[in-house]
Structure formats: C-alpha cells, structure tokens
Amino acid sequence: MKHTLPLAAVLLSAFALTGCVTNVEPAVPDGWQQIDVKAVPEIAAMVSDSDGILSVGTNPPFAPFQFKDSEGNIVGFEMDLARAVAQTMGLEFKPVQQDFSMILPAISSGQTDMGGSGFTDNEERRKNYDFIDHLYAGIQWVQRPDNPVDPNNACGLTVAVQRTTVSETDDVRPKSEECLAQGKDEITILSYDTADNAALAVLTGRADALSADSPVAAWAVNRADGKMETTGEIFDAAPYGFAVPKDSSLGPAAAAALQHLIDTGVYAEILHQWGIDEGLVEHAMINERPINA
C-alpha cells in the first residue's frame, strides 16, 4: 500500500473542486454522522488494556481511508470503523498521526496498539503482525472523460501514482517494463507523495490517468464533479486490515468486535456513509481466515 505541492492551491481555484483532492478536506460526505456503539461486555472481557485507550497509528491523507478535515480532525471510514471497534471493546479511540513507515514499528514497540492506514494484508507483513481484515479492494484506473485510456494498453502514456503504493510497484512499473520488452514506448510515471496530488495531475492534464487503490480512485471521482471517471475493471483485489501485534490478545478481541459490527449492520452503515458498498467482508477475519473457522 501506500505510502504537497504549492500547485494544489492554484488548482483548487482553477477547477473549483470543492476541496476534493487537497490534503485537508472541507467536510465529510453529505449526510455523514458519527456512529457510536455500546460496549459488549463479553468482548470487552477479552481485552487486556491498562489505560482504557485503543491508540491507532495512521498516516493522512489517504482519502477515504483517512484524511484531515478543515478543522484538522483525522476522519475517514477507517477511523470511523476503528472507533466503533474500540467502543465495542469498551475502549476510548485515539488516532495517532505518524509517518507511514513508523506505524508498524510503533506497534512492535508498544507505542501504539493498532495500525489503521490502508494496510494491505499480505504474507510478508504477516510474519510480524496480524491483520483484522475489514475490506477487499483492488487497483482502479481513473481518466478524464475527454481523454479515454485503456489500462491494458497504456504504452507511451503518462500515469500518476502515489509513491511506493502497489499501483506504482505492482501495476504501472511492470506494465512500463513490458512496454519496453515489446519494443514500445515506456509509460511515463509521475510519483507523488499523496494520492490527492496524483489525482490533481490528471485533472490538470499533466497525466493521462491515475492508478490507485479502488476506494481512493472512487473517492477522487466522486468528489471531482464529473471531471474524472474510472476506466477498466478493478483488478488485483486484496484484503485490507487493521494491524496488531503478532499473536496478541488484541487480534481476537478486535476481530470479535468487528464481527459484532457486521452482525448488527453497523459495519455496512459506516462504509456506506463513505460511498463504499463493494468489497465488504461477510465475516471478521484474522490474516484472511474467518475467526470461527
């Protein structure tokens, strides 16, 4: 997964994007409201926590997973979901902004309890952490309506990505290498620190397309007032989850809390508020294994 330019301020005025792709968003989605839940005693009893706080390391902006609103609050569907998980376990939710590269080490050192920052659950990360999977998502390309792009035939085009995401490392760069192997023009890759600025590159015409995680792509399109649209199918779907210490008691407790949210409909309600209605998990899982399996 993932991991600004002065140009952004100019583009906001030029395109009247209602703040859709800036590092600070003006508001949460229309109709959004914070969903609070009550603690479930049997799930709370599974938790061994001395301070009564679930601290969650996160790295905004990565809308709609997490970003800052106009008041500087860290918001997003992953924050809403983590809060509900914490409340179900009888804990207070506390987001902790960190550099992305420091989130997992902070969990290992005990500085934070959990990581919630658009983490892809993969075999390499499972060696040291467990993942409470909460969503399946893949890679989605975005284009301008007046400039159609085929993600499977992109040789010679310019494609924007967020630096070090799977879109860059596993999608666009391999495709560019294949173009060269076929004697065609390579793909020009524009790598940005945030997905917001990668989307801006498409809007301004600096890039022909954006490759991003499917929820991120959908968020950018939904907020772009018709100036961008998705193209091609979602591919390379993978589970996304909250990271916790390997073999810790927090993993089963958080998974039980997520299962409770699934059973009560709160899980789907939270994601729906953020425009996410695809890729929802049917059962709580740890490392892609159902907790009751």
UniProtKB/TrEMBL annotation:
Protein location: Cell envelope
Gene3D superfamilies (UniProt xref): Periplasmic binding protein-like II
InterPro entries (UniProt xref): SBP_3_CS (IPR018313), Solute-binding_3/MltF_N (IPR001638)
Domain Solute-binding protein family 3/N-terminal as annotated: residue spans: 53-277
CDD domains recorded: PBP2_MidA_like (cd01004)
Superkingdom of this protein's organism: Bacteria
Signal peptide stretch: 1-18
Record-linked SUPFAM superfamilies: Periplasmic binding protein-like II
Cellular component, GO annotation: cell envelope
Alphabetized Pfam families for the sequence: SBP_bac_3 (PF00497)
Keywords: Signal
Family: Belongs to the bacterial solute-binding protein 3 family.
Name under which the protein is recorded: ABC transporter substrate-binding protein
